[in-house]
Write a structure and sequence with these properties.
Structural class: alpha+beta
Shape: globular
Strand content: 15-25%
Oligomer: single chain
Number of helices: 3
CATH superfamily: Winged helix-like DNA-binding domain superfamily/Winged helix DNA-binding domain
Length: 67
């Protein structure tokens, strides 16, 4: 599987992912670029800033439609 496919499957099965997790699990150094690829395919991805070890990073997840 490609990094982009792995990240999409991760967000489907396990939820949000940070750049450090993406690197450790899938070897990607450009999570934002992989998420941009998913968005270009019509997959709604959201990013929220979270604090990790005193630094702010993006945490990416699939946007779920409102019930």
């Amino acid at each position: 599987m490609s990094q982009t496919s792995n990240l999409y499957q991760h967000m489907l099965d396990q939820g949000p992912i940070t750049p450090l997790e993406a690197f450790r699990l899938y070897g990607t150094l450009a999570l934002h670029s992989r998420c941009a690829e998913l968005r270009s395919r019509g997959i709604p991805i959201k990013c929220e800033l979270v604090e990790v070890n005193g630094k702010h990073v993006g945490r990416y997840s699939l946007e779920r439609p409102a019930p």
